[in-house]
Amino acid sequence: MTASIPDPARQATADGGFRGHDIVFEAKNVTKRYDMGEVTVDALRGVNLSLRASEFIVLLGPSGSGKSTLLNILGGLDVPTSGAVTYRGRDLSGADDATRTAYRRNHVGFVFQFYNLIPSLTARENVALVTEIVRDPMPPQEALRIVGLGDRMNHFPAQLSGGEQQRVAIARAISKRPEVLLCDEPTGALDISTGVVVLEAIERINQELGTATAVITHNAAVASIADRVVQLSDGLIVADRGNPVKTAARDLTW
Amino acid sequence: MQALNRKLFRDLWRIKGQALAISMVIAVGVLMLIAYLSNFNSLQSTRDSYYERQRFGHVFATLKRAPLALGSRISAIPGVAQAETRVVFDVALDVDGLAEPATGRLVSIPEHKREIVNDVVLVHGRYIEPGRPDEVIVSQGFVEANRLGPGDTVGAILNGRRRDLEIVGVGLSPEYVYTIRQGEMIPDNSRFGVFWMGRRALAAAFDMEGGFNDVSLLLRPGAQVERVIQELDELIRPYGGWGAIPRDLQLSHWSVQNELNGIRVAGVIIPMVFLAVAAFLLHVVLHRIVAVQREQIATLKALGYPRLSIARHYTYWALAISLTGTLIGTVCGGLLGRGMLSMYNEFFRFPVLEYRLDPTVVAGAVVVGIFAAVFGAHTSVRRAVRLQPAEAMRPEPPAKYSASLVERLGLQRLLSQPARIILRNIERQPLRSAITIGGIALSLAVLIVGMFAVDSLDLMMDMQFRVAQRQDLQLTFTEPISPDGIYSLQRLPGVMMAEPVLSVPVRLRSGQRSRQLAITGLPESPQLFRVVDAETLSPADLSHDGVVLAERLAHVLDVRPGDSLTAEVLIGSRPVRELAIASTVRQHMGLAAYMNIDAVRRLLHQDRTLSGGYLTVDSQALPDMFRAIKETPAIAGSGLKAAALKSFQETFAANLGIMIFFNVLFASIIAFGVVYNAARVSLAERSRELASLRVMGFMRQEISAILLGELGILALLALPLGLLLGYGLTSQLVKAMETELYAFPLSAVPSTYAICALTILGATLVSGLLVRRKLDHLDLLEVLKAKE
After folding, report:
1. Which among A116, A235, B350, B372 is least buried, having the fewest CB atoms inside 10 angstroms?
2. Which residues in B lie closer than 8 A to residue A172 (C-beta atoms)?
3. Distance, in angstroms, between B698 CA and closest chain A CA?
4. Measured between CB atoms, which of A97, A98, A130 is closest to B696?
5. Average pLDDT score, chain B
């Protein structure tokens, strides 16, 4: 825990608040090559991307396009083969496991397609799992209220629907007040109406807490709720455009 | 089928660590089964053919002196095939290079070799020649221990006259497979030997021409031993017969038989523990495999594989693991069995003790191995067979959890989230937690059972040599002498204290039950040879006329304090008296009866009433003492406590180290197998959960703590259970191995129990750390991508 990365963002905010303009992530010429026995797979082939504080971006692309690889590298789960990744000016691409663990612990909130809840813990305890190990968390109850689960806190995962489980995962991710929220296909396993509820929760967090958010999806309709849409194909960014007319999540249809 | 088998091999290869850990537990069980039972077979078949070949007797009797003519009347008893009359005397020996006096048992053999009962096997050298009265054949153990051989001579006091006996041959006899003196615990080959001597020469030396004082009978098949004994007793009674005994009570045979029984009991009980643990481990692993392969099973069924193929496939899993273990166990068991047998060669003297691994023993081991596999696999196989394909295609719903007992008790606030994960996991799978606890507990129990023998022997030795017997030396006269003899004992060199003893052969009878033994007459409060209760350590009261019985003897005769029994004295005027039973004492060995020495004298109506003495001797004066004993013809034998202790330690110390090594190894294999499998199964089931925690920023040591903490708690819960189980299993084993004349004390030495518990914790820790290495290499991305 002593290996944690200093937090210039918070200092900056305290100093006079030009948050919203400064860059959280910056990826330069990032490549990722997987050696899988006799074949090598180039998952990323030179990606440049930056994410600003409070920004909501959607990463679009077919499966195998490199979205998840990029997200994992940004989140400190993986390291690039070449290129540089910085978080608030700090280099992540060469960080060791302990440094990256501390980084994830203190700065990043993850949400996955399959929720990844601990089945033996209740909703509140799943959130508390995180709040117990970080500095300055929000109370688990509050995180669950934000995602609309204030009344189901004492249910075990097996007693919750898929959408509810995913919202617990979101509450768990945001309870540490992360700088960034990284969501990998958060609605991939859900039907439309539950998917919308989950996206609403993510949207609300982005707006109310100002958490920089990156959402991976292969569903183009989801893109309309983002500030910016980044499209990947075959390991490269093929489009990176702003979205001037944001749709509210509740108005989404697909 | 081809493809399914290939799947089996690859799947097994993927879990090779776990499979091997279970195979090893089975291997150890099979190894013990094979080692013990092959030794049982080898010893038994060697013994039986030896007995047969050398015509080992069925009935044995000693008497004072009977005319040779009685021999033909004995031969005429119905059922008797051959009656061998002999002259047998114990004499003091003077062996070059041996300071302490040794005892020789002189046994007569015909001058001209013919087939006799208890025939001697000539190992090397030659048979005695007629007309050479000093030639003897000597038992192999004595010759080897004293580095003697044909051509050497041994001094012996025959009826008061010193003779130099010339060794011409080295021999063995079925009568002395276990060459031990009555009343001693373990053979002392350097100080006790059997000397086979020409009948004429031996009889002449002891004024026994035309007579005999020992008879052995070979019976016809189907003869009634009890009836023969009865008739023999009637014939020899007028000649000072001590009462005949059947082969079952003959000292050497009885010792061999006891060992055989012990081997068989241990060879069944201990392997069963290992195989039971292995079956449970197979259950856990297969349960997991079937759960993981739900979708594969569904696919196989969808493809049209019949239920039988599925059942066979998962049964093969268990069989492959089990038979690998059985194979390893059989090979190692054969090797260990051979080593064990060579250890027995030090105790039991057979002309050839050949190791024999009977095919039926191997077949038995295989059957037991298959049974363990099928037993371990059956519920999982049934689950696989009953799986509905359509349902199984979908992944299993998330596991159901609830608040743990500790939390429901209101202690929730004390627990961190990881602690809750641990507790709820333990509670959610009570059967698996129970198997882990039970397995670790059994490994501890096995270790305790193994170590028990060490402590038990220690305790026995302590009881025998430090608490009960405080003398340095025990002397026995050739015949009872007058009570004044105690003064001559006191005058021997270096004697600090001398206590008289009067030992009288009797037959004790209560109703139909009877036993033949010696009543030991002791002073009112003996200081040297004490009659002490093994548990309370309090000395028995000998101030009265009643008899004090060893508890086991009271049990054999079905009497208790306050009852009375009939004592038929087997020497002198052979009086018959009623004796009151004053009390009983717990003793580890022997069927003993004690009385006040004056009461024994009154019982005998005799004045020659001292059969020997217990002495403490100044150690400086021991050499003078030994010289004096060798020069005193009236002293037939002597027992030196230090020598007995030394011989005991030499015999057992080497074997003890080996025994402890194997015990620790085998128990650790169980502990390792149990913990490693439990940890691997948990890891496999929960790698996703643990990876999620890592993604959230939990450190490696933090997630290790969750997985290993669970095992640690189970191990700690297992320890007290294991200690109890160990104690229980030991007491069962003690009961199973207890004989009429012998019982291991059930010792529970706290330090031994503590060492055993630490050993098992150590094995647990090692397997936990091995799994931790896997945990450190958890592939976060891979785990998150895949849905199980």
Report:
1. B350
2. 696
3. 7
4. A130
5. 86
CB contacts < 8 A (A, B): 86
> In sequence order, which residues have a C-beta less than 8 Å from that of residue B752 and are 6 or more positions away?
B448, B451, B452, B454, B455
Report which of A40, A78, A109 is spatially closest to residue B779, judged by C-alpha positions: A78
**Which of B692, B700, B703, B780 would best serve as a mutation to test chain A binding (most A beta carbons within 10 A)?**
B692
Place of tokens 């993927």: B14
Q: Where are the domains of chain A?
A: 54-77+105-251
- Do the chains contact at B424 and A77, CB–CB below 8 Å? no
pLDDT digits (tens, 9 = 90+) for A99-148: 888 888 888 898 888 787 878 888 998 898 888 888 889 999 999 998 88
Query: Which of B401, B699, B781 lies at the smallest CB-CB distance from A156?
Result: B401
pLDDT(B415) > 80: no
Tell me the shortest Cα–Cα distance from A53 to chain B, in angstroms: 21
Place of tokens 């002791």: B522
DSSP B425-441: HHHH-HHHHHHHHHHHH
The pTM assigned to this predicted structure is 0.75
Mutate to test the interface with A, among B696, B699, B784, B787 (most CBs of A within 10 A): B696
Q: Which two tokens stand for residue B638?
A: 């002597």
Determine, for residues A72 and B781 on separate chains, whether the beta-carbon distance falls below 8 Å.
Answer: yes
Point out the least confidently predicted range of A1-15, B297-311, B642-656: A1-15
What count of other Cβ atoms lies within 10 Å of the Cβ of residue B655? Answer: 13
Give how far the C-alpha of residue B94 lies from the chain's centroid of Cα atoms, to the nearest Å. Answer: 34
What is the C-alpha separation between B138 and B136, in angstroms, rounded? 6
Structure ipTM: 0.70
**C-alpha closest to that of B296 among B10, B20, B17:** B10
Which pairing describes strands B593-596 and B102-109: parallel, antiparallel, or unpaired? unpaired
B557-614 residue pLDDT tens: 999 999 999 998 877 778 889 999 999 998 887 788 999 998 988 888 776 678 889 9
Q: Is the pLDDT of residue A36 over 50?
A: yes
**C-beta neighbour count of B447 within 10 angstroms:** 28
**Cα–Cα distance between B112 and B127 in angstroms, integer?**
9
Which residues, including other chains, have CB under 8 Å from residue B56's CB and lie 6 or more apart? B50, B117, B118, B174, B175, B247, B253
Question: Which listed CATH number (3.30.450.20, 1.10.287.130, 3.40.50.300, 3.30.43.10) goes with A54-77+105-251?
Answer: 3.40.50.300
